[in-house]
Each structure stands twice: as C-alpha cells, then as structure tokens.
Write a structure and sequence with these properties.
The protein has 16 helices and 13 strands. It is an alpha+beta fold. It has three domains: about 90 residues, Phosphorylase Kinase, domain 1, CATH 3.30.200.20; about 180 residues, Transferase(Phosphotransferase) domain 1 (Transferase(Phosphotransferase), domain 1, Orthogonal Bundle), CATH 1.10.510.10; about 100 residues, de novo design (two linked rop proteins). It has a six-stranded antiparallel sheet, covered by helices on one side. The chain has a five-stranded antiparallel sheet with strand order 10-9-7-12-13. Strand 1 and strand 2 form a beta hairpin.
C-alpha cells in the first residue's frame, strides 16, 4: 500500500481522486491521531500563478471562518515545494449524489436549506462571498449536518468590488450561476443567494431551474429567461416556499432577499406553517396504475446507514472549478445507492384491478394470491397512517416510509419479474434506523413491523 508523509506529520494512505488542479488523499495525522483529508496542488499546476493563488486563497478564506456548517481547515503549508491543505474528513455524502435519487421531501429540503443559509450568513458577515454554491459543494454528514465546502474561488467583499483586471472573468458553475456572474459582473452576497435559490429549486423539483445542451445555453437562460415556477412541477410545494425560491432567483440582485438571514427567517416561517398542517395523502396503488405522481420521488436516506462513504474535501475538476469526490466503495454499496422510479399514486382500492390478457399468463399471480397481497398491502398502509395519527412516527419519517411503500408496490405489480423481498428487507432496515434515531417509537415499530411481516408471509418462497 502506498504511503507518504507530508510535513513529517500527515501520513497519506489512499488517493481519493485527482484533477487538473489538485490531488486529494486520505491521511492520518500522526500527532493528533485522527483521520484527515490532505489536498495537494497537482504537479502541473505548480507553475500556474493563478492556481497557486486560488489554493492560497482557499486556505486564507476557510481559516477565517468558524461555523459548524462550514468545513474546518486544520493546517496549511508547503512540503518539498508543494502547497497543501489539511481539512476535516467528512463522513457522509454530498447533495449532488442525494439529488441523483430524486427530489427531497419538503421538510428535508427546508432543513438543508436552513443550514446552508446559516453558513452563508456567517461567511457574508465575515466579508466572504463563496461564488460557487452548488449541490456538490454541500456535504451531508452521517448525522445530517450540512458542511459548505470549496472556497477556492471565494472572494472577500472588498476584492469582489475591486476591478482586478481589465477583462471580465466568469467563474462558477453554469447551472448555479447568478446572472451577474454569467455576464462577468461583480459578485456580492446576493450572488450566493441566487445560487442558493438554484439549489433549493433542485432539492424541491429534482432539477436545477435551467438546463441546456452546453454551459453557454444555460447561462443565457440565467440572464434572460424566467424559471418555471416550482409548483408547476410539484404542486404540493407550499406557496410561501415557492415565493421564496422565485425571489431568490430574481435577475436583479436588488430584488432578492436582503441577506441570508432574511432568507432563513422566511424558511422558518414556511417550516412552521408546514408543521401546523396535517396533510392526508392518497393511498399508494399496489398495481401501479394510478396517475403520474406529483409528490416527492423516492428519497433513499442512507446517511445513517451501515456503510457511510468518506467525502473528501478537494478540488478535482480539470477546468479549474473545484468539486468533491465520493470515496470508492464496494459494488454493493453503489448498487444500494442507485435510485428507483417513483411509485404511482392513486385512490385506495378494495379489490385488485384485473391484469390485461397480455400480462396475466407471464407475470400475474393467481387471483387469490393477488387479493391476499392486496389486502395485506392495504393493511400495511393503514398501519403507517395509524402510527402517524397516534404520534408513533413523525411526519417526515412517515412520508419516507410511504415513498418506500410506493417502490414496494411497483415490485409487487411486476409479479415474477419483481423483487419485493428486497424492498421489504430495505424497509425493515429503514424502520430500524428510524427507531434508533427516535423518529419511530417502539409501539409504532411494532405496529408497522407486524403489518410488514403479514405482507412478507404472502410472498412466494
């Protein structure tokens, strides 16, 4: 196994990725006996004055920020002529990977957004404009804490105002770039708020507000086109939350919220309003023949799972724009994190719908088996609803379970081609995690677990 020591203290044990700007290593701090991430400027960038300046800027910027939602810088220096940074090694995933599985439950999106706002509020108070807020730069630890990372292109408010060159330079990531950035204008705290609005839009709808075949097409839309209101893509988004998103995405910076604190206050009001409402959701259709869902797609919460991946804090993009990589896991880890299609939603039925002649012979179970499965599935849905009404499971956790039931219903509808046993096992693990985390009481776990056992008993051996 490759090992190298940096500054006589940090023992590099594993390369976690590299790009045109930097290489990132998992390392062990032999003085303080802890795991860290060491980011070293790539050999090809040593002679690039702008790359060295950006690397130095990141160290100076992060060192001046002290907030639980901002990555911690432990050390910086030069080893054998190579600049390096030492940062905390964050266990978890990044928001970009999470969004690959679909939009988030609204309460989860608001929680993440609140923490991002808190980080931006601290950074802006210190005079720092991040300039590259995007899902890949938002890490989610195993306990759900958000860490804003990658301050490599950040600027202080003073330097952002200064005309450093005679030619405008566009920096950032096209899908999350404010109009003033796209046109080479000066960044300010409200520039970060626009990018944050793009991230919130993506969390709620599963896609950024603008997409295109190339970065220039996307930048054009940021400058000239209004976004599709998110409630057109997901009607259950609260009106107040949509209003905040659209205000954050205002083309004119002066029309955006005054600062991150103001945006955070509005998020809090949305959260209070949402928690005060009780929404009765339609039953999931085991046959998967209902209308296309308008609710959240399945969000597979594996942050508290058994195989948390290491997220290392490092710049990797060959273009010079920085990002973060997920440490390689086993094939099973990657397979378990893949997204599954959302379940269809339809009014509850008391008897199974007949299968078409084309599918009955090959995949449909016998009528008696289908009716038994239908009944036990309905009982499972009722158990979740009863647990929520009894206060045995919180609303966000109940929605997560319903999303998983939607996927289970699709597997049941596939007959012999489906794999409901796998989905049942996954649901059992999730219920255990919820119970351990205090979101599901022992009584609720018993109620839902008994109904799940009854459904499992109807499956063929």
């Amino acid at each position: 196994m490759f090992e190298r020591s940096v500054a006589g203290r940090y023992r590099l044990t594993e390369s976690l990725g590299s790009g045109g700007m930097a290489t990132v290593w998992r390392a062990h701090d032999e003085v303080l006996d802890r795991a860290v991430a060491v980011k070293m400027l790539a050999e090809g960038a040593w002679s690039d004055a702008s790359a060295v300046a950006r690397f130095t800027q990141e160290a100076l910027t992060v060192a001046g920020l002290d907030h639980p939602n901002i990555v911690t810088l432990f050390d910086a220096g030069v080893d054998d002529g190579v600049p390096f940074l030492v940062m905390e090694l964050v266990e978890g995933t990044d928001l970009h990977a999470l969004l690959g599985r679909g939009p988030l439950p609204i309460a989860r999106a608001v929680s993440i957004a609140d923490q991002v706002c808190a980080a931006l509020e601290a950074a802006h108070r210190a005079g720092v404009v991040h300039r590259d807020i995007k899902p890949a730069n938002l890490l989610l630890t195993t306990d759900g804490t958000v860490k804003v990372v990658d301050f490599g292109i950040a600027r202080t408010t003073a330097s952002a105002r200064a005309a450093l060159t005679s030619t405008a330079t566009v920096v950032g990531t096209s899908s999350y770039m404010a109009p003033e950035q796209a046109t080479g204008g000066r960044a300010n705290p409200r520039t970060d708020l626009y990018a944050f609005g793009c991230v919130l839009y993506a969390m709620l709808t599963g896609q950024p507000p603008f997409e295109g075949e190339d970065p220039m097409a996307i930048l054009f839309q940021h400058v000239h086109q209004p976004p599709v209101p998110p409630r057109q893509l997901r009607p259950e988004i609260p009106a107040g939350l949509e209003e905040l998103v659209l205000d954050l995405l205002a083309k004119d910076p002066d029309q955006r919220p005054t600062d991150a604190g103001a945006a955070r206050d509005r998020l809090a009001r949305v959260g209070r309003a949402s928690s005060a409402r009780t929404v009765r959701l339609p039953a999931l259709s085991p046959a998967g023949k209902g209308p296309a869902p308008t609710g959240p797609l399945q969000w597979v919460d594996r942050l508290g799972g058994r195989r948390a991946a290491a997220l290392v804090l490092a710049a990797l993009a060959a273009t010079g724009l920085t990002g973060y990589v997920l440490a390689a896991g086993s094939p099973a880890d990657h397979a378990s994190a893949r997204s599954t299609p959302p379940a269809s939603v339809s009014p509850a039925r008391t008897s199974p719908q007949p299968s078409s002649p084309a599918t009955t012979a090959s995949t449909a179970p016998s009528p008696d088996a289908a009716q038994t499965g239908q009944g036990t599935f309905d009982a499972l849905q009722r158990a979740v609803a009863e647990a929520q009404n009894a206060g045995e499971i919180d609303a966000d956790a109940a929605q997560d379970v319903r999303n998983r039931l939607g996927n289970l219903s699709r597997q049941l509808a596939k007959g012999r081609d489906g794999n409901p046993a796998h989905e049942i096992a996954d649901l059992r693990h999730r219920l255990a995690d919820l119970q351990k985390g205090g979101q599901l009481s022992d009584a609720g776990a018993q109620r839902i677990g008994s109904a799940l056992d009854a459904l499992a008993a109807t499956l063929p051996a």
